[in-house]
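ok so i was messing around last nite and threw this chain in just to see what happens. nothing serious, just curious
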Amino acid sequence: MDAHTGALTWLAQGAASNLVDRLVDRVLDGSPPAPAWPRPGRTPAGTVEISVRHHSAAKVRTPVILTLQETGSRTGTVFSVVLGHTARIAVPGGDYFGAAMVVDPARRTLQGIGWSRLTVAARRTSPCLIPAGRPSAPVILQLGLRKADGTPLFRL
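result:
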């Protein structure tokens, strides 16, 4: 399993454990809290500005679940944002993997999924654009986006 699949699988497992419901509720209930990196770093902090591009120009608040994972780590940190907004997160300088899931909570559908590698420079702002494309059934199966009973977590 490559690093991309591992990170996306980690995101999918979190999604299957009701994480998506909690994060979507947080986005839809008002302004999400400012994202914060949970661990102190060994290097000086930089700032990453993460934006998600998706083909739908939604006129409603569309939740996006972002994950940021340090390269080589088996875990990551999850943030909730609104599609079209930019998340600014102070993180230790280094290499990261970012993933995004665009969801429609009303219809329980996964609208988009995407990922990108990024390097955060210490004491600088590093932009990151994650293009979220339409998910396919093979990708959903590969990531294990299923509930404990085996039913799909999202409809396509």
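not much to say yet. The chain has a mean pLDDT of 77.
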